């Protein structure tokens, strides 16, 4: 990433090089509204945040046609604050959370698209489900009763490393699981790839990348 480029140039650059059908989520966490507006004015509409309160504050200040994605870990007691507007929740990792999303989406007569987060990194710190738990969740009777959530795919975060072979193999593993589950699920979305690894993720079959610092510059925190 070059600091001589502006946010709008970064975003246009990125989008012009993306294969057809790939969605770019511009990850704007910690960044001011003026930065988001530069991306908006360059034609971008899909933004990702990792904290619910911050997303709510920004949603109130940004134009109505922005599509908001919650990409961070979600605490159940905060789902209610975003249920009226969030379009996709990326890091769902339990039936309890799905039920809470369903309940609040129903109150707003909406259906919220959700991705199940799969643990693909070797670090312990990363959230996400193990494959066995994910399969039993998808196969459960209870999930069929949830009418206001739609599970549209999977999300994963690779290990923080520059080892390309390792990144590739983690993404490949997630893609294989996605393909296997797609035989019985109506999946449309595989969310994998960030500023440092999105090219590899795209090679390995990602349909949605979450890019922050390569658009908005480095963050001081978050
Ligand atoms: C911050 C974040 C990103 C974007 O990270 P960059 O390296 O700045 O592109 C993507 N996904 C998640 C879940 C994040 O928290």
Describe what is shown at a glance.
With 222 residues, the chain is α/β, with parallel strands linked by helices.
How would you sum up this structure, described in words?
With about 220 residues, this protein is α/β, with parallel strands linked by helices. Helix content is about 40%, strand content about 20%. It is built from 10 helices and 8 strands. It has helices spanning about 5-15, 35-40, 50-60, 80, 95-105, 130-140, 140-145, 165-180, 200-205, 215; strands at about 25, 45-50, 65-70, 90, 110-120, 150-155, 190, 210. The chain has an 8-stranded parallel beta sheet. Strand 3 (about 65-70), helix 4 (about 80) and strand 4 form a beta-alpha-beta unit. The protein is globular, with a radius of gyration of 17 Å. The two termini are about 20 Å apart. The model has no long low-confidence stretch (mean pLDDT about 95). Pyridoxal-5'-phosphate (PLP) binds near residues 50, 195 and 212.
Order of helices and strands: HEHEHEHEHEHHEHEHEH
Q: Give the overall silhouette.
A: globular
Q: What is bound: which ligands?
A: pyridoxal-5'-phosphate
Low-confidence stretches: none
Order of strands in the sheet with most strands: 7-6-5-4-3-2-1-8
**How many individual β-strands?**
8
How much of the residues is beta strand, in percent?
15-25%
Average pLDDT figure: 95
Structural class: alpha/beta
Radius of gyration: 17 Å
